[in-house]
Design goal:
The complex is a heterodimer of chains A (498) and B (553). Chain A is an all-alpha fold. Chain A is built from 22 helices and two strands. In chain A, strands 1-2 form a two-stranded antiparallel sheet. Chain A starts with a helix and ends in a 5-residue tail after the last helix. Chain B contains 20 helices and eight strands. In chain B, β5 and β6 form a beta hairpin. At the A-B interface, α19, α20 and α22 of A face α5, α6 and α7 of B.
Chain lengths: 498, 553
């Protein structure tokens, strides 16, 4: 699909989104200080996102291996699925931002515009089939993220978080770029498929210095992905950024970029190294490397979350752990593993956004994100406490909540690999879910088993919060019991790459 | 088409409590609109809870009367496809292994429900708020959810469905212990104990076991052979427990790769066994149990001891004995030794207890050890004894916990040494305690004796003669059991009445409604255990290893 017209049609979702961004900018300018301005901006942004999701369905031939602009942007089912997912995440980001008092009304337009740009970046990142495109997507996600993290200009924590984010972001994207340049030097191309063929050829031959160069290039490239999905050892920014950023953006940040980064990571490893997984790539143990990173990531995330007194920070560490769970499956790299990550992410979107929404609701009323603010929440705001419980136990991964189905798919994919190494990974993974229960349940315990302190009255839920909590909690329950339709959607979308 | 639907009674039974939950939620939702009072919502929830428990009991009895005991086939099956991609089915049914437990569930939950209402008798809650008046609708929602979870666990014949129900039991229990249990208190050494602590300990222990079970379940699924769903669709793998059992028996799994140096069957055996043994609870995984029991409200202790511990034992029978039959002999000796450790260790720890409820909790550890020993013997008497012991412990331990609740509701303490001479003030109660204690220590003529004696006989008949040594040790520990019960009896009820307790009053009607039927059943099954044997024997004995070409009968 090399002709320009068809290629333009193939990026229809992005074009719709671009149009929406322009409209929102204009609307924001024209409406100035009118009282309805934030609402109008939000409605337009949501329409834009819904329009792009609808455009995804119109993109022709979501079969395996289709792409646009030469082989720059993939239009396979995998890419389209992830685009839809990240636009949904942005949708929730837009709505949560409107509900939060952390985003000042007069700045809401900027917030929404930046979020839409970020959404587009995520879409491109998820679809990139070329290292250059991949890097552009990554930066397009990163730059608005830095601004949105430091969005509360007067707030020192917010500014500090933004600075940390920029520095670690710059460092890791530098490393990644260096890795890419090595890959280009080795294979003379930026196209992932051709790199994959080059790697197969290289590893089939006798070991030379080029094998070492490949290993270094892979490690360096991995740095960029690890940073984006907040995996160890590039997770240090995560707790500070999550704590400092405005809560609605944190909710978005913990899901959207992670999903896009996961898509890029999957595509990178499976296209470049995927071939016949175990055989041809025998010389380079990238599976073991990723498997170890996954185990370390989830263990570090879970242990660090155990004693956090700030709930946002706790959820930040929990999101690191979840990146670890998904990386287990990335390490396996089979078709089942890809599908399991694809199933996990939408569920994770629901439950994690829900948990952050509850944090936001408590913060709106009490001004605090600390664990102590949740004392007696079960009687101060039963609906909020019950839905929060649903999200937290879903994050733990116990039935009958959707989180369990996600974990089930991940572990099934890992066990199917069948090697002793992946058996160890699976055991470490399930034991980590037990550790995770402790800190999720700690929040539930504070909400239900402890009495409210002096002067801590009812936490009145606003009507939008109640609606959004329901919108997120109901599918979290339903998908836990009946996930057949989602599974078949993924089955259809997973026809990927090559 | 294997195992077609024959009856929907079992499904109705499993989900009747959920209908109750729906009704309570409906009333809670309508409360602001209809201006219903808090008291109305509370009483409505209690009524719904009682009615649902009674209905489940009635359906259980209906199933008992319709159950053909002479067959090891699945009865009352309800079978439908659930998630096609994974070959997950909604498949419930009962056979000889599960029917007795389903009946027991109905009974224990009914007793628990009656013990959860503040009606029919004096309740001294002026200074000590009673759990039955706290957040009442929430309590009943969780109570009924728990009942669905337990019934589903005992009747699932699809591994995935079993796992879901197994985990559904966790959440309600966590909240029931945490919210309605004892408030946090600081013990000697600065340790904080109480409901919240016990609840999370229970949750963590059980989850640790069930995640191992999850891995085993996935591994079994992935190495299972092709099968068919109930609608005739062919599938690559299966979760159907009965199909899996056949595949294991036919050796389909012998080609599965070894796991950590163990054959596939042995590896999943160990993973499942650990998962179940935490729930039993088996030494050394038992430490959650005393905490959970001491700090749970009375009816929840009743349910925990009466039925939740049995889910672990049931899992061993269904999976370790039935499905992984070929590995059972390999593990029998270890299980037998662990069972005897449970018996003896539990009994000795009981001797040292100062708190009546803690003593009863540890006695459960001891008595569940008999089940393990009976299972390990792999003889007809042994496994029958195991199941009978499950059943009799399911009647006797609720009595014991109800008894502990009776005295705690009045005196607000359970310190054994603080009482004395209660027989004078509370003769009826003393009689009931005497009966329950005697039943628990295995007095002939009461239900506890039958299970123990069958286990001992089964152990003596085991092909491995070393079992006789285990049986001897286990049998001698009955003396310790008698010792701690009689000593407790003496300290609490005999001697001089402490003036502090002069104002106590004897049993009220709520306590009578719960205790007398259980006492009657204890005596009935003590002298006439045949109804239980008729239910379970055919299925159980078919599972025993064939030795020398013939099944030992």
């Amino acid at each position: 699909m090399t002709n320009m017209g068809a290629s333009l049609f193939a990026i229809l979702p992005e074009l719709v989104l671009t149009g929406a961004i322009l409209v929102v900018i204009l609307a924001d300018l024209l409406l100035k200080a009118r009282p309805g301005r934030p609402t109008a901006v939000a409605v337009l942004s949501c329409l834009g996102l819904v329009g792009s999701v609808a455009a995804i369905a119109a993109v022709p031939g979501p079969g395996a291996g289709t792409s646009a602009f030469g082989v720059m942007i993939a239009t396979d089912g995998f890419a389209l699925f992830f685009k839809g997912l990240v636009y949904f995440a942005a949708f929730f980001g837009v709505i949560l931002g409107l509900m939060s008092s952390e985003i000042r009304r007069e700045q809401y337009g900027e917030y929404a515009i930046l979020l839409l740009c970020l959404a587009m970046g995520m879409g491109l990142l998820a679809a990139a089939r070329n290292l250059l495109m991949l890097y552009l997507g990554l930066e397009m996600v990163s730059l608005p993220s830095y601004i949105l993290t430091g969005f509360r200009r007067g707030d020192r924590r917010s500014s500090e978080a933004a600075v940390k984010y920029v520095i670690i972001g710059a460092a890791s994207s530098g490393l990644m770029l260096y890795g890419f340049s090595l890959l280009y030097g080795l294979f003379g191309t930026l196209d992932l498929t051709r790199i994959g063929m080059g790697i197969t050829r290289l590893l089939a031959g006798p070991p030379t210095g080029e094998h070492l160069a490949l290993a270094v290039a892979t490690l360096l490239s991995l740095a960029g992905f690890a940073y984006k999905i907040a995996a160890v050892p590039f997770h240090m920014w995560c707790p500070d950024v999550y704590e400092g950023a405005p809560t609605p953006f944190t909710a978005f940040l913990s899901v959207g970029p992670k999903a896009a980064g996961m898509a890029a990571l999957l595509r990178f490893f499976l296209t470049a190294f995927g071939a016949p997984v175990a055989g041809a790539v025998g010389g380079f143990p990238w599976q073991v490397l990723l498997g170890i990173l996954a185990m370390v990531t989830m263990t570090v995330g879970n242990f660090a979350a155990l004693n956090q007194e700030n709930v946002k920070r706790m959820l930040a560490y929990s999101s690191i752990a979840h990146a670890g769970y998904m990386m287990m499956a990335v390490a396996v790299g089979s078709g089942d593993a890809v599908r399991s990550v694809m199933l996990y992410l939408p569920i994770y979107l629901l439950m994690n956004t829900g948990a952050f929404l509850a944090v936001m609701a408590v913060r709106e009323r009490t001004g605090s994100e600390l664990l102590t603010a949740y004392r007696g929440l079960g009687s101060r705001s039963p609906y909020l406490a019950i839905t929060l419980t649903v999200f937290l136990f879903s994050l733990t991964g116990i039935p009958p909540f959707a989180g369990f189905i996600g974990k089930f798919y991940l572990f099934a994919a890992v066990l199917k690999a069948g090697s002793p190494f992946f058996n160890v990974v699976a055991v470490v993974g399930v034991l980590n879910s037990v550790i995770a229960l402790y800190y999720y349940a700690r929040l539930v315990r504070t909400a239900f088993f402890e009495k409210a302190g002096e002067g801590e009255g009812a936490v009145a839920l606003t009507e939008p919060s109640r609606v959004m909590l329901t919108v997120l909690a109901v599918p979290t329950l339903i998908l836990g019991i009946y996930w057949g339709p989602l599974a078949s959607l993924i089955e259809r979308s997973a026809g990927m790459m090559r | 088409m294997d195992y077609p639907t024959t009856s929907s009674l079992l499904s109705w039974m499993i989900f009747t409590p959920m209908i109750g939950v729906g009704m309570i939620l409906l009333v809670l939702g309508l409360r602001p609109f209809l201006r219903l009072s808090q008291a109305f919502a509370d009483n409505f929830s209690r009524t719904v809870g009682l009615l649902c428990s009674a209905l489940v009991m009635a359906m259980a009895l209906a199933m008992w009367s319709g159950f053909k005991g002479g067959s090891s086939a699945i009865q009352f099956a309800h079978h439908a496809v659930w998630i096609r991609q994974w070959a997950v089915e909604y498949f419930v049914g009962v056979d000889g292994i599960s029917i007795s437990m389903v009946i027991l569930t109905g009974l224990v939950f009914l007793a628990g429900a009656i013990a959860s209402v503040p009606w029919w008798g004096r309740l001294d809650d002026a200074h000590h708020p009673h759990f039955s008046k706290k957040r009442v609708p929430g309590y009943w929602i969780l109570f009924l959810l728990l009942e669905t979870g337990v019934l589903g666990t005992f009747s699932s014949l699809d591994f995935f469905l079993f796992y879901i129900f197994w985990e559904v039991m966790l959440l309600p229990m966590y909240f029931l212990i945490g919210i309605w249990g004892a408030p946090p208190r600081v013990e000697a050494g600065g340790r904080v104990r109480g409901g919240p602590y016990a609840a999370i300990k229970f949750f963590l222990y059980t989850l640790a076991g069930s995640v191992l079970m999850l891995l085993a379940m996935i591994a079994i699924y992935q190495h299972s052979g092709p099968s068919t769903l109930v609608d005739g669709t062919r599938t690559l793998h299966t979760f159907n427990i009965l199909h899996l059992t056949k595949m294991f028996a036919a050796g389909s799994f012998s080609v599965a790769p070894a796991v950590f140096g163990l054959t596939f069957m042995h590896a999943v055996f160990i993973a499942l066994f650990i998962g179940f043994s935490i729930k039993v609870p088996m030494f050394p995984f038992h430490t959650w149990l005393p905490d959970a029991h001491v700090d749970a409200p009375t009816p929840i202790s009743v349910i925990l001891a009466g039925i939740l511990l049995k889910t672990g034992m049931y899992g061993m029978l269904r999976f370790n004995l039935q499905m992984l039959n070929g590995a059972m002999e390999w593990a029998a000796w270890t299980i037998g030794v662990l069972g005897v450790i449970n018996i003896v260790y539990g009994a000795f720890v009981c001797m040292a207890q100062k708190d009546l409820k803690k003593l009863i909790a540890y006695s459960s550890v001891s008595h569940m050890g008999f089940c393990l020993l009976g299972l390990a013997a792999l003889t007809p008497q042994g496994v029958t004894g195991c199941v009978f012991q499950m059943f009799s412990h399911g009647i006797i331990s609720p009595m014991l916990f109800l008894i502990a609740g009776v005295i705690y509701d009045r005196a607000h303490t359970r310190e054994i040494a603080g009482f004395g001479g209660l027989a004078e003030r509370l003769p009826e109660y003393t009689g009931m305690v005497g009966l329950a204690f005697m039943a628990s220590l295995g007095l002939p003529g009461l239900a506890g004796f039958i299970g123990e004696v069958l286990v001992f006989m089964g152990g003596f008949g085991a092909t491995n003669h070393a079992f006789r040594g285990l049986v001897a040790v286990g049998a001698l520990s009955v003396i310790i059991t008698a010792g701690y019960y009689l000593w407790t009896m003496q300290r609490m009820f005999l001697g001089m009445l402490n003036d502090k307790w002069a104002g106590l009053w004897d049993m009220n009607w709520r306590e009578r409604i719960t205790l007398y039927p259980l006492a009657a059943l204890t005596i009935l099954f003590g002298v006439y255990p045949a109804p239980i044997f008729n239910l379970v024997n055919t299925t159980l004995h078919a599972l025993l290893p064939v030795v020398g070409g013939a099944v030992i009968r």
